[in-house]
Amino acid sequence: MLRLPLLVMSVALLAFAVTASTPAGAAATLSATGPAGASATLGAAAASAFPERTRASSPAGAAAASASPAPRVADSERWDWPIPPPRVIERPFVAPQSEYSAGHRGIDLRASPGLTVTAPAAGTVHFVGTVVDRPVLTLRHPGGLLSSYEPLDSGLAEGAVVARGEAIGTVGRGGHCDGSCLHLGVRLDGSYVSPLAYLGGIPRAVLLPRWRSP
């Protein structure tokens, strides 16, 4: 009959010894021995080592990393349209919910092959080449801006400096446009934004007074 009390006392003394000899942080880790606790411990370690990657793993963090709200652009910083009128937007900008989710990261302007495309603002050729099945040209502009055009046939080389309104190529074939449109994409500090914010196509929000009925 004495074996059970002695066993209980031994277990209690062993638990006290482990608690006394273990730092607070380690004790917290030891207490999380179940699947949920292990997940919490690993999650905390990952958040500490890769904070950006951890934030991007959540829907809200991923959306913030892939697309930003329409920036406020001063009238003096507006861009010119890259094609002459008439200008018809075949497909608007649709911000993706995450870095890899569906969306339309730019606008499609109705255009025929051979149409001359001009630089909407001064910049430097950041990239020119074929991406999968379409020719692409990307310009780097001041302020962390990149503008991309596809399909675009161009004789420019990387590093070439272009002025506002200067011809940068002609509409080509390939990609989802394939001879029917020009896709224009804009990135600000790595995040996709609507090109209309710079082309003046997004109307400013106006607060109207609330009228009270007598």
Quick recap:
The protein is an alpha+beta fold and about 210 residues long. It folds into 2 domains: about 5-50; about 75-200, Distorted Sandwich (Glucose Permease (Domain IIA)), CATH 2.70.70.10. The protein contains 6 helices and 11 strands.
Structure in words:
The structure is a single chain. The chain has 214 residues and is an alpha+beta fold. It has 2 domains: 3-49; 75-199, Glucose Permease (Domain IIA). It has 6 helices and 11 strands. The strands form 2 sheets. Strands 1, 2, 4, 5, 6, 8, 10 and 11 form an 8-stranded antiparallel beta sheet that branches. Strands 3-9-7 form a 3-stranded antiparallel beta sheet, with no helix packed on it. β5 (134-141) and β6 (145-150) form a beta hairpin. It is globular. Residues 4-8 and 13-66 have low confidence and may be disordered.
Shape: globular
Domains, number: 2
Helical fraction: 25-40%
CATH top level of the largest domain? Mainly Beta
Mind describing the biggest β-sheet? 8 strands, antiparallel
- How much of the polypeptide forms β-strand, as a percent range? 15-25%
| CATH fold-type name of the largest domain | Glucose Permease (Domain IIA)
Task: Tell me the CATH architecture of the largest domain.
Answer: Distorted Sandwich
CA(first)-CA(last) distance: 90 Å
CATH homolog superfamily of the largest domain: Glucose Permease (Domain IIA)
Query: What is the total tally of β strands?
Result: 11
Number of helices: 6
State the order of secondary-structure elements, H for helix, E for strand. HHHHHEEEEEEEEEEEH
